[in-house]
Amino acid sequence: MKKIKVLFVCVHNSARSQMAEAWLNTLYGDRFEAHSAGLEPGELNPLVVRAMREAGIDISHYRTKPVFDFIRSGALFAYVITVCDDASAERCPVFPGVTHRLHWSFPDPAVLPGSEEEKLVVIREIRDRIRDAVRVWADATGS
């Protein structure tokens, strides 16, 4: 069975899209092939790496990728899912051949206020919300 290709996009590809990619590949890798990219790739957020490790997923080897590299390569995706805020999602480019474009809005871990521990509490909540969104969507999508 051919896997359904999915691209998760956010601004920096440092947190939300990385978590979504990891969740989809970990939970549903038999049916989906997930990738992630950013409009302005930055550095992987170490608190996100920590939060995902706590959930049993090591993303420390993940690297940020520019969304335009996927466009230039001619990669085709059945779904492009933006996981940033609404204004940033509007900046996402149009992908050739995409049959579905979805938007899931999650707060940006890069701009959270507070101490490292206070940020980590919120990042865990975002992580779990992304996991839940992936589960609901994947269970309703594909065969």
Account of the protein in words:
This protein has five helices and four strands. The protein has 143 residues and is an alpha/beta fold. It has one domain (4-135): Rossmann fold, CATH 3.40.50. A four-stranded parallel beta sheet has the order 2-1-3-4, sandwiched between helices. Helix 1 crosses helix 5 (116-140) and helix 2 crosses helix 5. The radius of gyration is 14 Å and the shape is globular. The mean pLDDT is 89.
Précis, in short:
The protein has 143 residues and is of the alpha/beta class. It has helices at residues 16-28, 46-54, 67-73, 86-89, 116-140, and strands at residues 4-10, 32-38, 79-82, 100-103.
Give the oligomer, counting copies of the same chain as homo and different chains as hetero. single chain
Arrangement of strands in the largest sheet = 2-1-3-4
Number of domains: 1
Helical content (DSSP H or I, runs of 4+): 40-55%
Radius of gyration: 14 Å
Key words describing this protein structure:
alpha/beta; 5 helices; 4 strands; four-stranded parallel β-sheet; single chain; 143 residues; globular; Rossmann fold
Which helices and strands appear, and what pairs or packs with what?
Elements (H helix, E strand, L loop, with lengths): L3 E7 L5 H13 L3 E7 L7 H9 L12 H7 L5 E4 L3 H4 L10 E4 L12 H25 L3
Parallel strand pairs: 1-2, 1-3, 3-4
